[in-house]
């Protein structure tokens, strides 16, 4: 197939492209910045923004499938407009351009589990759950992804575009150059999490999600959503990270309200000092919620087979430490040097 990938130079794209190339497909990428490393044979790169309609329409010529991976992850209110423009406005324009094609390519939308499986209380949710607008309405990232997902599910049937929506949880594993997804582990290693969050987290190995996305070329429920991930309490998750890295667990365990209040106070202190806070109040607020999900559908329809969590986390930690100055790591206890390969 001739496949167009938006956002293909990111964390997930780095693992998806080799699978597509090994299967004999030709790939065309759209990206704002030139890749830092040479792209393999069989990959064509077109530099530009998704707002550039001429660029996008030219890139759509002759494609059989589209992976829409382009996105921005931020939990800061100041980035809300940019995320809405990318996730909603650009997706709307892209689908409109696809509707003009004689042959409609398969459209695989990379969404997030946060459009479905988010709760104020401890519970496990599946694809039938309603959009949690009452929970995520104050978080611009998840809200913009809900609007993007709703838009695709509305327009694709109308335009007769075959759509598969993927909803992976927080991506872990090697290769997250920008720490866009593995930031939780990086902050833990740096000692930037002073108090243990009280919520529940769901994570997915980026290699497993890449395989699921690859399988979505030929499998999956059309116009359906597919949750992907493994569930842990925040304590269980960070205990595993602590065990593998040797970095001690946070000593504080505070109620939700005190965790959020403390983060707001530290944020004001950082503003007064003229720097970015180590941990944003919205990030703390998110950690006080439950992101537990049921991935049975993805297992049955897209052959989701998760890595062992310890392998995933060890590879995540090792990759982060390779790019982190030794002095930035808290409480080494001798294991970090081994993970670095020293």
Please render the helix and strand layout as text.
Elements lengths: L1 E5 L4 H12 L3 E6 L11 E5 L5 H7 L5 E4 L11 H20 L6 E5 L22 H4 L3 H20 L3 E6 L1 E3 L10 H7 L10 E6 H10 L9 E4 L1 E4 H12 L10 H18 L7 H7 L8 H7 L6 H14 L12 H6 L2
Parallel strand pairs: 1-2, 1-4, 2-3, 4-5, 5-6, 6-9, 7-8
Antiparallel strand pairs: 8-10
Task: Give a description of the structure.
The chain has 342 residues and is of the alpha/beta class. The protein has helices spanning 11-22, 53-59, 80-99, 133-136, 140-159, 183-189, 206-215, 234-245, 256-273, 281-287, 296-302, 309-322, 335-340; strands at residues 2-6, 26-31, 43-47, 65-68, 106-110, 163-168, 170-172, 200-205, 225-228, 230-233. Helix 3 (80-99) packs parallel to helix 5, helix 8 packs across helix 12 (309-322) and helix 9 packs antiparallel against helix 10. The longest helix is centred in the first third of the chain and has 20 residues, at 80-99.
């Amino acid at each position: 197939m001739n496949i167009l990938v938006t956002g293909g130079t990111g964390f997930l794209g780095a693992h998806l492209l080799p699978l597509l190339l090994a299967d004999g497909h030709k790939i065309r990428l759209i990206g704002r910045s030139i890749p830092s490393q040479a792209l393999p044979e069989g990959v064509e790169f077109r530099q530009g923004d998704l707002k550039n309609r001429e660029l996008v329409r030219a890139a759509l010529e002759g494609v059989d499938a589209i992976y829409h991976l382009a996105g921005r992850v931020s939990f800061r209110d100041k980035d809300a407009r940019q995320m809405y423009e990318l996730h909603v406005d650009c997706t709307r324009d892209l689908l409109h351009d696809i509707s003009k094609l004689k042959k409609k390519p398969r459209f695989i939308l990379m969404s997030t589990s946060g459009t479905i499986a988010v709760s104020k209380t401890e519970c496990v949710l599946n694809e039938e759950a309603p959009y949690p607008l009452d929970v995520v309405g104050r978080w611009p990232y998840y809200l913009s992804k809900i609007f993007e997902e709703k838009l695709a599910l509305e327009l694709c049937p109308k335009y007769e575009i075959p759509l598969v929506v993927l909803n992976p949880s927080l991506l872990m594993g090697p290769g997250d150059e920008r720490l866009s997804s593995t930031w939780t582990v990086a902050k833990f290693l740096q000692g930037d999490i002073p108090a243990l969050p009280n919520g529940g987290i769901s994570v997915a190995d980026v290699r497993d999600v890449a395989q699921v996305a690859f399988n979505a070329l030929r499998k999956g429920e059309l116009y359906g959503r597919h949750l992907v991930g493994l569930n842990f309490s925040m304590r269980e998750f960070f205990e595993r990270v602590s065990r593998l890295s040797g970095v001690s667990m946070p000593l504080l365990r505070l109620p939700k309200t005190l965790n959020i209040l403390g983060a707001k106070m530290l944020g004001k202190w950082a503003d007064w000092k003229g720097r970015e806070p180590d941990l944003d109040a919205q990030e703390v607020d998110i950690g006080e919620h439950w992101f537990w999900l049921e991935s049975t559908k993805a297992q049955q329809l897209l052959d989701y087979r998760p890595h062992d969590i310890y392998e995933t986390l060890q590879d995540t930690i090792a990759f982060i430490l390779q790019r982190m100055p030794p002095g930035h790591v808290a409480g080494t206890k001798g294991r970090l040097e081994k993970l670095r390969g020293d």
